[in-house]
């Protein structure tokens, strides 16, 4: 068990969220569940996503999730971006803007194809500005469109 992990506060369904998240990302697993709340659900769940440690606390409605905390995932390509985006926005999730979404549990995510940053910070300042402006018009990031904007 890692000695440092991010704790995410949920209202009774965090264990369901953890199970869902680990099903989406390779190299992910639930490590432990302990304690119990009134419904019988675990109080806490330790898990990791791609080796990054997290903890879910089924703490109740006092502290709802917000965009102030998000999980950022750099995907290998557009196909992986599309797969994760579709899974995370399904069943009540919502697209936001610039690669951000909120899943059905209320957790915010940033899904970013690996090549995007090369265009947003590329050596051609005008191209980078065009790529950035293109990104501002998107919800799910489209790597090909960002590259086209960069190239002019």
Helix segment count? 5
Biggest sheet: strands side by side, in what order? 1-4-3-2
Q: Percent range for helical residues?
A: 25-40%
What Rg, in angstroms, do the CA atoms define? 17 Å
Relative strand content:
25-35%
Structural class: alpha/beta
Along the chain, the helix and strand elements come as: EHEEEEHEEEHHH
Q: Residue-averaged pLDDT, rounded?
A: 96
Largest sheet: 4 strands, mixed
**Uncertain runs:** none
Please give the alpha-carbon distance between the first and last residues.
49 Å
Oligomeric status:
single chain
Instruction: Find the count of extended strands (DSSP E, 2+ residues).
Output: 8
Instruction: Note the overall shape.
Output: elongated
């Amino acid at each position: 068990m890692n000695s440092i992990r991010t704790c995410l506060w949920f209202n009774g369904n965090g264990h369901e969220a953890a199970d869902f998240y680990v099903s989406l990302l390779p190299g992910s697993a639930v490590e432990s569940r302990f304690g119990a709340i009134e419904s019988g659900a675990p109080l806490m769940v330790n898990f990791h996503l791609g080796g990054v440690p997290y903890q879910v606390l089924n703490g109740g409605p006092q502290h709802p999730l917000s965009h102030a905390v998000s999980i950022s995932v750099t995907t290998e390509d557009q196909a992986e971006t599309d797969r994760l985006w579709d899974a995370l926005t399904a069943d009540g999730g919502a697209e936001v803007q610039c690669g951000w979404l909120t899943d059905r549990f209320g957790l915010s995510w940033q899904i970013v194809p690996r090549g995007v940053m090369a265009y947003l910070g590329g050596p051609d300042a005008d191209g980078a500005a065009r790529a950035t402006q293109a990104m501002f018009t998107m919800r799910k990031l489209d790597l090909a469109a960002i590259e086209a904007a960069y190239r002019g």
